[in-house]
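Standup notes, protein team

Yesterday: finished cleaning the Candidatus Rhodobacter oscarellae set.
Today: Xylose isomerase structure.
Blockers: none.

Input for Xylose isomerase:
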Amino acid sequence: MSRDLKVFQSLWAMQPHDQTGVSLPYDRICGMVRDAGFDGLAIDLGAADVETAHAVRPHIEKEGLTPLIVAFPRSVESLRDTLKMAKDFGSPFVNVIGQVFPLTVEGAIPVIRQWIDMSLEEGMPVQFETHRNCITNDLFATLSLLDAVPEMRLAGDFSHYIVDREFKLPLTAWEQRLLDRCIARCDSFQGRVASRQQVQLQLDFPQHAKWVALFEDLWRRGLTDWCHRNESGDLVFLCELGPPEYAMTGPDGKEMSNRWDEALTIKSKIEAIWADISTP
């Protein structure tokens, strides 16, 4: 038995991939992603559509990449078609950012349970991303959902919760325990560095170093916890640095950093953490 790290890049993050604003064709994108050593490419159905997924698929397959489907279902039943498509594409799971989000935890519980039941019926695992403006919008509500639905699994993107709760540094022990409770239910992780005010920071700006350090610690905690829970299998880590307006821009409208270079930096950091914790 073996455990393997699989680092993915996001198609959304490649359109455009840097501050030039140039949108590359799908064959170029997939070639760049493969040549950089990524294992797969995530197709975000919130930023794209099913037609886009089918258009990029042959290029993903040609380059030997694994597709990962990110779903934004606007109704309970609408997830089913995405699950079927993801199974046909060969996605390891569907990353769900549910656009059905009742105002109460009590109202959200049956929605989560129906989606989990649907995933079992279709034979396609689901992970619920820790994401704003969806059913896991709030950290506290998500923790309540985890307590109520023990089989609920997460895809951890903690940038959303650092902004959502406006966490200050250093985190208190209580705040760290809240995030650790999420980490314990994460079956994959995503890479983006946030502060308490911005969801996506430039990695090499000196004023952001303390936030980079926070996220490196969260990623290390996440990868370590996953290894303790899994004797074998693949751990997916998705680099997802979004274009504007996720990426901050200057008065000229141009991005203030090169997101492709930053994605490669995050990839290297994650691979170094994995090598460290995997060494006997």
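Follow-up from PR in the comments: The domain at 3-278 is CATH 3.20.20.150 (TIM Barrel).
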